[in-house]
Amino acid sequence: MLSKKIEDVLNEQINAELYSAYLYVSMGAYFRSVKLNGFAAWMENQAKEEEEHAKKIYDYVNKRSGRVALKLIKEPPFEWKSPMDVFEATYVHEQEVTKSIERLTNLSDGEKDYATSSFLQWFVDEQVEEEYSVLQILERLRMIKDSNQGLLMLDAELGKRG
User: Fold this and answer.
1) 3-state DSSP call for residue 159?
2) Terminal Cα distance for the chain, rounded
3) I need a labelling partner for 34 at 20 to 30 A (CA). Which of 50, 65, 118, 148 fits?
4) Distance of CA 156 to CAs 81, 100, 119, 161, Å?
5) How far from 94 is each of 74, 121, 124, 130, 147, CA to CA, in Å?
6) How confident is the model at residue 76 (pLDDT cuts 50, 70, 90)?
7) DSSP result, 20-75
8) What is the rounded CA–CA span in Å between residue 62 and residue 9?
9) Mapping DSSP to helix (H, G, I), strand (E, B) and coil, where does residue 77 land?
10) Is 131 buried (19+), middle (13-18) or exposed (0-12) by CB count in 10 A?
11) What's the Cα-to-Cα distance from 8 to each of 3, 64, 106, rounded to whole Å?
């Protein structure tokens, strides 16, 4: 059974994961509006992953006889200056998610809730991948700079993400 404190922070993380999905849908909509459909597809896939993360925590809370309490999801931004601006914001956001997962891990360790600590390890590992993936795209955008041809090539590549 989960302690009230652990249950509360897991519920906060469900909200954070759903916000991430909402943010990535918004970013995808931005990319659709500027006709970068490969970038949009990448963000839409990212949104689906975040929904899966929320569901994973939702299921875990229920398995541990906790109570899921969904809260209001804040409105994401919907305007950006450029693809670079979007991916800079994405990278910062993923770093914030990493810090949130680390806080959860520290709390579960401190509470000697070893089942939750074990469960959260998947998210710790996932965040390493998330940050790396976004950073790779961001670094490529930095190399491309103002090259429309380079941007279109990256757009085509990102559209292949399955």
Assistant:
1) coil
2) 37
3) 50
4) 20, 33, 36, 10
5) 17, 16, 12, 7, 26
6) very high
7) HHHHHHHHHHHHHHTT-HHHHHHHHHHHHHHHHHHHHHHHHHHHTT------PPPP
8) 14
9) coil
10) middle
11) 9, 13, 15
Residues 6+ apart with CB under 8 A from 121: 105
Q: Which residues contact 78 (CB under 8 A, 6 or more apart)?
A: 26, 29, 30
> Per this entry, what is the length of the chain?
162
* Chain segment 115-128, per-residue pLDDT in tens: 999 999 999 999 99
The domains found in the chain, sorted by start residue, are 4-158 (1.20.1260.10)
Q: What is the pTM of this model?
A: 0.95
Q: CA-based diameter of the chain, in Å?
A: 55
Name the residue type at position 79: E
Q: Which residue has the tokens 């579960």?
A: 108
